[in-house]
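Give me structure tokens for this 175-residue protein.
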Amino acid sequence: MKNLLLTGKPGVGKTTAVLRALELAGVPARGFVTGELRGPRGRTGFQLRTLDGRTDTLASVDFPGPPRVGKYGVRLEALERLGVPEIDTALAEGTLLVVDEIGKMELFSRSFRDAILRALDAPVAVLATITRASHPVAQRIKKRPDVQLVEITPSNRESVVQEVLVPWIRDAVAD
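Here you go.
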């Protein structure tokens, strides 16, 4: 399959697995990952970081929204300024595309939805994380015949990296 999607409970290590597999595979890729922003009282939001190191805040308890996901206001312009162009660049270059994540926050953006669907249809390999929760767009993506869906758990995370992700990345780039 040219599209490999990881799912699992929040905090299980999907992003960590993707980053570790990219490091071990040692191949060029475009795209972005998301990570928590933390303060003295716990998580305060989420940051988007491109694989080449550019960052912006995607969601924060301090952003008013809309849209909102739980206690977080979401800044779609951060995703549309950094994430969507990374998808388009990977498509133009024919480079492995990493998208972390196809989730509720990101799916508020029509530009992102359109870009991820273009990427899944394109000849480039897509390695992405996707929400485990039910969402109409995410459910359609998970059911695509060109998608392999792998669930990450605490007990299988390292074996998925070594036995699934690294070989898949190397094969995808070799094609």
